[in-house]
Amino acid sequence: MILQLLSLLGAAALFLYGLNLMSNSLLKASGDKLNRFLPWMRKNPFSSILSGFGITAIAQSSSAATVNVVSFVNAGALTLAQSILVIMGANIGASLTTWLVAILGFKLGITGYTYIIVAIGF
Questions:
Q1: How far apart are CA 98 and CA 114, in angstroms?
Q2: Distances (CA, A) of 59 to 19, 28, 90, 107
Q3: Residue 70: which of 92, 52, 95, 94 has the closest Cα?
Q4: Which residue range forms the structural domain that includes residue 83?
Q5: 29-86, pLDDT tens digit by residue?
Q6: SS3 (DSSP) at 33
């Protein structure tokens, strides 16, 4: 029981470390591009939700999108109200992605393309 709890805590710590590392790397790597994207993200509520949806589609993780948005708020690039809308879009994106896989994934038979998709991902 204790070993399982320690494994769970270790896995959570490793996950949070990976998200933090990805967030910091994203901020460093995307300097000018991010400065052009953030004003569009802040323009209106619809663009905030749509950008959250896009971030989730690219990162394939609403948790990663949320961590990045929190780092933007921490850096002063987004306000709290704007970040709530972006996180809402990220959660909508995660839900829609799951529904798309559930509805289309089994009908298309994508299991044969799994190795190709994994190879492209790396």
A1: 17
A2: 11, 17, 10, 24
A3: 52
A4: 2-121
A5: 666 777 777 777 777 888 888 888 888 888 778 888 888 788 777 777 788 888 898 8
A6: helix
Q: What is the pLDDT of residues 18-31, one digit of tens each?
A: 877 776 776 676 66
Q: Amino acid identity, residue 73?
A: V
Torsion angle of C-alpha atoms 88, 18, 75, 40, degrees rounded to 10:
-50
- Per the CB < 8 A criterion, the answer to whether 68 and 57 are in contact is no
DSSP 61: -
Identify whether the C-beta of residue 89 lies closer than 8 Å to the C-beta of residue 51: yes
CB atoms near residue 22 (< 10 Å)? 16
pTM beyond 0.70: the answer is: no
Number of folded domains that form the chain: 1
Q: Which residues contact 106 (CB under 8 A, 6 or more apart)?
A: none
Here the tokens at position 50 are 């749509």
